[in-house]
Amino acid sequence: MMEVFKGNFTQQEPLPQEAIDAAVNVLTTGRLHRYNLKEGDAGEVSSLELEFAKSIGADFCLAVASGGYALATALRAIDVKPAQKVLTNAFTLAPVPGAIASINAVPLLVEVTENLTIDLDDLEAKAPQSEVLLLSHMRGHICDMEKLMEITNRHDIKVIEDCAHTMGAGWNDKPSGSYGVIGCFSTQTYKHLNSGEGGFLTTNDSSIIAKSIALSGSYMMFDKHLSAPEKNMFEAIKYETPNISGRMDHLRAAILRPQLKKLDKKVIRWNKLYRTVEAILDGVKGIFLIERSSKELFVGSSFQFLLMDFSYSEIQSLVTSCRNRGVELKWFGKDEPHGYTSKYDSWKYIPAQEMAKSDRIINSTLDMRLPLTFSVEDCRIIATIIRQEVEARVAS
Ligand SMILES: *Cc1c(COP(=O)(O)O)cnc(C)c1O
After folding, report:
1. Could you tell me the distance, in angstroms and rounded to a whole number, from the CA of residue 187 to the centre of ligand 1?
2. Is the shortest distance between the CB of 186 and ligand 1 below 6 Å?
3. Residue 38 CB: number of other CB atoms within 10 A?
4. Which residue has the least CA distance to atom 7 on ligand 1?
5. 67 CB less than 6 Å from ligand 1?
6. 265 neighbors 237 (Cβ within 8 angstroms)
7. CA dist list (Å): 3 to 264, 275, 287, 384, 394
8. Which residues share a beta bridge with 182?
9. Rounded to the nearest whole angstrom, what is the distance from the C-alpha of residue 208 to the centroid of ligand 1?
10. Would you state the pLDDT for residue 121?
11. What is the pLDDT of residue 396?
12. How far is CA 363 from the centre of its chain?
């Protein structure tokens, strides 16, 4: 009998009791809007902003309605104009090109490497065409950040980091999100903290945070923000900045604060699951595993591997066989966008771009989530099923 995995790839852990209590407490007050505060009350949202900023060593943080909203706000806050080209990874999730398109700017795609990070040679080649890089640490893979910053600094390119999968991660002992001028994070259910929807924007730049606060829909309540610059920073901004509402509310902030305190422990658990899968797939003929640099402190909340020598139909058949055995693999190379995955050539709202190197990589990339409801034993079963299915095809 072939072993079948019975777990659920989309089942999250329940929220900690402390988060449930905090949520009930907010509901009891009836004050859910971030600016609806009792005299002298800092509020859950402002408190969370201070705590998150501190956790990544940033001067300022703004909590917002989603990760995608944080990205679009970041682009607006550094004054990206319509028709301006914004460099970004060819392999990323749809909200990244979506954020660029939302302000009528134009994504200029940069190739990715076999390690699923941005290709620094292609970045160097395209750097003269743009002043902004929206760098996506897609699925938690972090490129050589010193090299990247050397290139972008030399070309006077501002970097916005998309840290949807790198909350709690870092490069060379420096937190992910603290290299660029702005870091953007998501607290959507499938990321590292879970508030259903939500996000953060972090920066050390006082004019960027002031502008972001105003953009997010501050209704001139700047003084209610604790993670904010001096009041005079808002003097000119308040007349010039459109209100594009995307605030976070106290209910979400209340359930995020207890989770943030436990993030480090979750990272350790995720990496144990990741290393379990990796050890079983290591050395299997036909599987290309992603090399993780010793400088990369990653969060193994998902796992990717490449089948470089497999044809389209072979990968299709492998995905089907794995699914029949309970293992849900996401395949970015599928010709139709499907269930969270989409490829750059299905983003028809951006100019068509030739990405020969990325094509080969994306077409052979398989991906799965590792929710913390999985045990180490679950991961052993999952990896063994994948291993068997790959070996069956390579041997024949
Ligand atoms: C999830 C995600 C985002 C944005 O997150 P939302 O909160 O869903 O808007 C951005 N980039 C990447 C790579 C993501 O996976």
Report:
1. 9
2. yes
3. 8
4. 67
5. yes
6. no
7. 33, 21, 21, 9, 20
8. 160, 203
9. 21
10. 98
11. 56
12. 21
State residue 260 phi and psi, 5-degree precision.
-60, -40
**From the CB of 164, is ligand 1 less than 6 Å away?**
yes
Q: Which amino acid is at 202?
A: T
Residue 195's Cβ-count burial label (10 Å; 0-12, 13-18, 19+) is buried
End-to-end CA distance of the chain: 20
Atom index in ligand 1 nearest the CA of residue 66 equals 7
pLDDT at 2: 87
In three-state secondary structure terms, 251 is: helix
The CB of 140 under 6 Å from ligand 1? The reply is no
Q: In the prediction, which pLDDT does 335 show? A: 79
Contacts of 308 (CB under 8 A, 6+ apart): 114, 288, 360, 364
Instruction: Decide: 162 in ligand 1 pocket, CB within 6 A.
Output: yes
Ligand 1 centroid – CA 382 distance (Å): 25
Beta bridge partner(s), residue 108: 87
Structure tokens at 265: 């422990």
**Ligand 1: centre distance to CA 91 (Å):** 13
Cβ atoms of residues 300 and 140 within 8 Å: yes
Q: What are the tokens at 178?
A: 């603290």
Cα 383 → chain centroid? 24
- Assess whether the C-beta atom of 135 lies below 6 angstroms from ligand 1: no
Q: What are the E-state strand segments in 152-245? A: 158-162, 170-171, 174-175, 182-186, 199-203
Cβ neighbours of 41 (radius 10 Å): 13
Cβ count near 180 (within 10 Å) = 25
Q: Residue 333 has what pLDDT?
A: 85
Q: Which residues of the chain, if any, have pLDDT below 70?
A: 1, 396
pLDDT at 61: 98
Q: Is the CB of 88 under 6 A from ligand 1?
A: no
Cα separation, 147 vs 144, whole angstroms: 6
Cβ 138 under 6 angstroms from ligand 1: yes
- Contact at 8 Å (CB) between 202 and 61? yes
Q: For ligand 1, what atom is nearest to the CA of residue 92?
A: 13
What is the rounded CA–CA span in Å between residue 288 and residue 390? Answer: 11
Residue 187 has a CB neighbour count (10 Å cut-off) of 30
